[in-house]
Specification:
This protein is α/β, with parallel strands linked by helices. The protein folds into 2 domains: 106 residues, NAD(P)-binding Rossmann-like Domain (Rossmann fold); 180 residues, Rossmann fold. Helices cover 30% and strands 18% of the residues. Helix 5 links the parallel strand 6 and strand 7. Helix 1 crosses helix 9 and helix 3 packs across helix 5. The structure holds NADPH dihydro-nicotinamide-adenine-dinucleotide phosphate (NDP).
């Protein structure tokens, strides 16, 4: 019985150290070292090389090291094995802080002033006020719900859209495709916090943008696959949208020939809005490992039929 860590970045050693510190009795391996494949019953993964999960004949759990699981569903993984994901207060707080920082930067024109500074331009621009804006959150799950509460504390009006109704104080909710148009009509700043699934792929498109009021601003911190890139550029260039801040892209790193890099009204961050902090999330992975050994229900299970 052992855990294998499969990811292609430089963080394998940090995860291994954190897991071993939390429970020295659990054998933990990197997929890059010699390891007993038949003893592996949990794979802790993040954007793993496709196909690697099929190397483990006794695998009983695929644990995403992050909140998203779209990279697992894209893979040819052993289909009957339960998938878990991270639900974590620090991850949600970090995301909320990022989105609120982006919103304030937009309201106070900080991005434009930075561009003006580089070009030697001194040009005050009227700023906007919190009270003038309704923030629409697409996806009111573990992350969106925390953002909704934090926005309220800053005095923003916020509203949410999800598949099912949520009971969050002061948050008008819109549910399902039928209520999406009303939600969009009242949203000046749109934040995408949806999981990437068959139903949400390409949801940020011209048709959706057209239902937002003139001058709306887009923040995509979910996945690049939600956005039709050319539609965003077209709707900004036509003046219907005032701009966007993106953290996620179809291809990461974004190729430097991509038009987003040079667009004055598109603010880019490098997919780092919120990342799993090992100290904060390792306890839930260890807890799930012990649950797995005892045959108890796992925490934060993903639904393969819903895709999130
Ligand atoms: P959750 O699964 O907790 O929440 C997803 C929300 O989206 C739920 O409210 C769900 O509705 C709603 N939803 C899903 N499908 C639909 C649909 N077809 N129509 C309407 N609503 C839908 O996810 P998290 O909040 O934990 O994370 C969201 C995403 O954020 C992750 O999947 C990941 O891709 C991204 N992320 C990005 C990070 C970054 O650094 N940029 C960091 C962490 C996460 P319901 O509640 O009714 O099921």
């Amino acid at each position: 019985m052992a855990i294998v860590i499969i990811r292609q970045d430089h963080k394998i050693d940090a995860w291994k150290t954190a897991l071993k510190a939390a429970d020295p009795n659990i054998p933990v391996f990197s997929y890059l070292e010699d390891h007993p494949v038949s003893q592996i019953d949990m794979a802790l993964v993040w954007k793993h090389p496709q196909g690697t999960l099929n190397r483990y004949p006794n695998l009983k759990c695929i644990a995403s090291s992050g909140a998203g699981v779209d990279f697992i569903f894209k893979d040819d993984y052993p289909k009957k094995i339960p998938i878990t994901r991270i639900v974590d207060t620090m991850l949600a707080n970090d995301m909320s802080e990022h989105v609120i920082a982006v919103i304030f930067s937009y309201l106070k024109n900080l991005g434009q002033y930075r561009l003006d500074q580089i070009r030697g331009i001194w040009k005050p621009i009227d700023y906007h006020r919190v009270s003038d804006y309704t923030i629409g959150i697409l996806g009111v799950g573990a992350l969106g719900a925390v953002l909704a509460k934090d926005l309220r504390n800053y005095g923003f009006q916020a509203q949410g859209w999800a598949r099912s109704k949520k009971d969050i104080a002061g948050l008008p909710m819109y549910v399902g495709d039928g209520q999406l148009p009303s939600f969009l009509a009242g949203t000046q700043i749109l934040v995408c916090l949806l999981p990437l699934t068959g139903k949400t792929t390409g949801i940020l498109n011209k048709q959706l943008f057209g239902q937002l009021p003139q001058g709306a601003y887009i923040i995509n911190v979910a996945r690049g696959g939600h956005l039709i890139d050319t539609d965003l550029v077209e709707m900004i260039d036509s003046g219907h949208l005032s701009g966007a801040c993106l953290d996620v892209y179809h291809e990461e790193p974004l190729p430097n020939t991509h038009p987003f890099w040079q667009h004055d009204k598109i603010h880019m961050t490098p997919h780092y809005a919120s990342v799993s902090d090992t100290a904060s999330v390792v306890p839930q992975i260890i807890e799930n490992y012990h649950r797995l050994q005892k045959g108890r229900p796992l925490l934060h299970l993903v639904s393969p039929s819903k895709g999130y």
